[in-house]
Amino acid sequence: MSNGQWYPPEWPARIRALASGELSAVTPKRAATVMLLRDATTGEGATGPAVHMLRRSTSMAFAGGAYAYPGGGVDPRDDDHLVGWAGPSLDTWAGRLGVDTAAEAQAVVCAAVRETYEEAGVLLAGPTADTVVSDTTGADWEADREALVARELSFAGFLDRRGLVLRSDLLAAWARWITPAFEPRRYDTWFFVAALPEGQRTRNASTEADRTVWIRPGDAADGYDRGELLMMPPTVATLRALRPYGTAAEALGAADSQDLAPVLAEARMEGDELVLSWPGHDEFTKHIPPAASPPTADGTDGNLS
Fold first, then answer.
1. Is 128 in a helix, a strand, or coil?
2. Are 286 and 276 in contact (CB under 8 A)?
3. What Å distances lie between residue 54 and 26, 51, 216, 252, 277, CA to CA?
4. Are 11 and 303 in contact (CB under 8 A)?
5. Rounded to whole angstroms, how far apart are CA atoms 145 and 139?
6. Which residue, of 15, 54, 104, 239, has the greatest Cβ tally within 10 A?
7. Cα–Cα–Cα angle for 97, 102, 108, rounded to 5 degrees
8. C-alpha count within 13 angstroms, C-beta hemisphere, residue 211
9. Are 215 and 53 in contact (CB under 8 A)?
10. Quick count: other Cβ atoms within 10 Å of Cβ 177?
11. For residue 290, what pLDDT is reported?
């Protein structure tokens, strides 16, 4: 592997099974992930914002050891009633996200805010439309966070009980990627950007991560290019897209110009060779020979080039 690109060794067989009709694609579930940004602090020297990333536990079967952002699936309960809302209207969000209804838009945005709280301890909500909570530590906050993770409490119920307004104006939609059709677990994922609210701090609150880091997008992308940081294509692509911006505010300001057309992997045959590609992202193209070797003891497949 010349870079940190993560591919499961079972993909070639699954791709061929899908092409032959032996495998049926599952419907992707909706999900959201957040690229949480903070500007350089005094004494750090380098310019440009840092992004909060977590490393998936190396023991996990799917993408173990890969770096990603806080995120997860939509909870169906997040659109069961209107929540306290600040920022662009739900209809505006529906148009931006490319969904049909205000309820769908609320569910996706709620997922982004909820997952950031569940996995990083950062909450994009406040008592009023122009305030944000400054401290989410303490036993009562942790009890609520754990209840959210266990799905014992809906995010809408959490906001209502605490009298909080979801600050959708602190988020901006950046990209949308859909898990390839040959994967057994598929997600239709919206990527958001947000700035770390003043007074709040991130922490590793996820049971699926073994470490978290603040790292500049360019440094993370360089680590991937050197093969030092393992990542999936959507993560690398969004890091590269963030690289030009000097502050978190600049990145948020540029979000409206980002294309939210869904990116979905395509597989095609060129002679006997299988070619896997992501439209608009040529760097991730993979050429898979017809006789791919079975996975080795360490789970790698040397014929993925």
1. coil
2. yes
3. 27, 10, 13, 21, 26
4. no
5. 10
6. 239
7. 50
8. 9
9. yes
10. 24
11. 75
Residue 126: left if φ>0, alpha if ψ -120 to 50, beta else—which one? Answer: beta
Coil, strand or helix at 122: coil
Confidence at residue 5, expressed as pLDDT on a 0 to 100 scale: 73
Residues written for the chain: 305
Cα of first residue to Cα of last residue in the chain, in angstroms, is 7
If you write DSSP's letter for every residue of 189-232 in order, what string do you get? EEEEEEEPPTT-------TTEEEEEEE-HHHHHHHHHTTSS-B-
Average pLDDT value for residue range 164-177: 97
Please determine, for residue 303, whether its predicted confidence score (pLDDT) is greater than 50.
no
- Asked if residue 46 lies in contact with residue 127, where contact means CB atoms within 8 angstroms, the answer is no
CA distance 37 to 169: 15
Tokens of 140: 């009562």
The band of 272, judged by pLDDT with boundaries at 50, 70 and 90, is confident
